[in-house]
Every structure is written in C-alpha cells, then in structure tokens.
Amino acid sequence: MTAFDGAGQNGERRCVVVSLRTDVSEITALVETLGFELLDTIMQKRDHPDPRTYVGRGKAEEVRDLVEELGADLVIVDDELKPSQVHNLQAGAGVDVFDRIRLILEIFTRRARSQEAKLQVELATLKHRVPFVKETINLLKKGEHPGLLGGGEVGTHQYLREIKQRMARIQRELDDVKRVRSVRRKHRTRHSFITVSVAGYTNAGKTSALNMLTEAGAEVDSRYFSTLSPLSRTVEGVESRVLINDTVGFIEDLPPWLIEAFESTLEEVYSADLIILVIDFSEALEVVERKVMTSLEIIKRRGEVPSILFLLNKVDLIFPSELRSKVSSLQDSGMILGPWIPVQLSVTRPKRREAMRTSIFHTILQNLEDIQLVEMELDADVDLFSLQIKMDEKNRNLLGLIRDRAIYLDISRREEGSVTFAIDRDYLNKIKNDIVSLKGISLNIVED
Prior knowledge:
Layout: E1 14-19, H1 25-34, E2 37-43, H2 57-70, E3 74-77, H3 83-93, E4 96-99, H4 100-111, H5 115-141, H6 152-190, E5 194-200, H7 206-214, E6 231-234, E7 239-240, E8 242-246, H8 256-261, H9 263-270, E9 274-280, H10 285-299, E10 307-313, H11 320-332, E11 340-342, H12 350-366, E12 371-378, E13 388-391, E14 394-397, H13 398-405, E15 408-410, E16 418-424, H14 425-436, E17 441-446
Parallel strand pairs: 1-2, 1-3, 3-4, 5-8, 5-9, 9-10, 10-11
Antiparallel strand pairs: 6-8, 7-15, 12-16, 12-17, 13-14, 15-16
C-alpha cells in the first residue's frame, strides 16, 4: 500500500472522512465533487494533531474498525498530512489515505481541460509527491517495506530523479506560457484594452458573474473548481475594449507550493486593472470572513493590489438587515475596503438581468483608475451620427471621435436621447468643452 496507489481511478470510491474541524461541509463538498461515496465521518476534538497518526493510536484503531465494518477503500483526512502520517494511517487502516491536498489535486486532475491547466496540475501533483518518495527512501533505509516501487532503494532514488527532471521540463513549458501571456497583455495595453479579473472562493459564483457581464454562456457547475483555465470575454451588446477574465477559484489552507504551481493563471488576477471579488453572502458571517480572508491573502501575494470591487452574491437568500450587518462587520475588520454591490447572479428574467448587468458594469467602469463614465444626453431633434465638433482647427465627427478613444460605448438608448461611454479622464477634459458647446447636447459625469 502506498500514498499513490489508486491514483487516477475513475470509478466511485467508498470513503470515510476524518476531521479535526467542527465544520465538515467543505470537505464533504470536495468528496462529492469527485463522485466518491461518503460512508461516514469521524470527527475528533484535539488541540494538536498526533505527530505519528494525526488522530492518535486509539482513534486510528477506530478508523481501522470503521473501514472494515463499512467496506471502505479510502480514508480522507481533512488536513495536510506529513508523509509519515499517511504511511502510518495506511498501515493501520489497510486502505489508501488521501489528505486534503491530495483530494484537491484529484479534482484538479479531472477538471483540467487546456494544456496549460494539465501542466499546472501535473507540476503540483509531482511537487506533492516528492516528500512521499523521500519518506519511502528513509523507510527503506530503516529496513521497512512501504511497498512503493518494486526496485527498492535504488529504484526509488531513480524515480525521484525522474520526478525532478519532469518538474523542470514542465516549469520551462509554463515559463513559455507565462511569456506568451505577457506579450498578449502588452498587446491589449497598446490597443487600449482594460482587463477585469473575476476572482473569489471556489463555488462563489464567478462563472455566473462572467456570464452576467458578457453573455459568455460558460458552463455553471455547482461542484468545486469548475474553472481551472482562465476564460476571457469582451462585453456583448456594446462597443467595448474591456476584457473580463474568469479565474481559478480559491480555497483555504493551500500550501504556497500549490499556489505557485498556478502562478501563470494567477497572473491574470495580479495584472488586472480591476478585480471583481465574488462572495457568497448567504453563508454564515464566520464562513464569509474565512473565505474573504483566504481570497485576499492569495490576491495580495504580490504586494501591490489592483482596485477591488466586492460583488456580494446570493443576497436574495438573506434579509436586508443581515446584509447590512455583514457588510458593517467586514468593513470594521478591514476586509471590505472598497466599493461593493449586492447582486443575485442567478436571476433569469431578461429585464431584471439586463438592469443588473448594466448596473454592475457601470460600477466597474466607475472604479477603473483614470477612466471616466459619462452619460451624454441629446435633444429629440439631434442626429447623433451627423454631429460635428471643431478640434485642432479641423471638423471631426463626434461619434467617430468617441469610438476612437472610448473603452466602452453604449448607443442602444440613442432613440431615447441617451448615450453612455467611458473614456480616459485627461482626453475627456480635452474634448468636453467642444462637446458641450454643441446645441442640444449635455454631458453628465457619473461619479463614484
């Protein structure tokens, strides 16, 4: 029996969960995401994990007895385990043992679709495997026979070298991906594109936010980690140079090396002009606080943080008084320091959905640095398409001028006498007086 027996099995596994936490909802959701059958959960209250078996000798025997009684073939521990703890638990229980990290890696393996995601998952899996191989070498030196690789100590050393060589090759490939992404970002900057990254704890509603803003039609899945590869979309229905990115979901207690394995994907968050942090606000306050703290810790890994807009999802499931109370608590604790919007991303009625979409997007534009959102009102007898203004001793078509420089232009309400656009503040100051000098035109600056 080894730490890696059964890896990659697609059949349903019968498992027992062991946890020192009082809340096992997240580990249960992770198990369900893999389609494993959860037979029972053993919960233990102790100040510190046992260094040998994590749960102590008596509880380890209880785990063994329960595994035999229920016919389980897997024990899942809701924490990160040392290799020696995995070895000792497996030796006692007689079945595979996954820790929390191994379980998450199994989900990543099944969810990876793009070549980049597959490389990132493989790199993370190999990083996780290295200390277990080293533990096997130590056990072999002591004369124990953990069963990993039939070649004994020599074969295990060779396997470790192969893992490290493979990790180096994957890292080079991911560095190439990172360079390509960097070139794309520079290209977008040159063409005046603004990037907005949708981030948040896994299953908070990030993909629903992407669909709300862009009509992308991306698959929404209630299971954890439905998005591993970034999805990039522009805003539908308007002229826009705003690119919205959906990114991999966050989860607490991830070791730094696992986060680093997804560095090229997280670049889309770190380099964004604005981050939309989606929060499931229907959960209990302590759960919301824990998930927001985890998300902010990952976002702040690089030090300098882009502006953050907090999207409070599923507020239809709580009372307004609870919404206000939670926001106040998060503001007092310094977790919400920027603008926030309460939303119901699952809304399906077309008019309500479009109104919410417009409201969210206009709030995004208002919070982009150096960008000003403007509403231009036209009298009924004014023809938008024929408007001319004099600039630099030349007559210029107003709509063409705005189209050249705006990152967002919505003329869908022009028959109602309203046009909305977002443009660089310095450029707006340059042309504002020329625009308002036209008869039948007024500009309304949309403030934060």
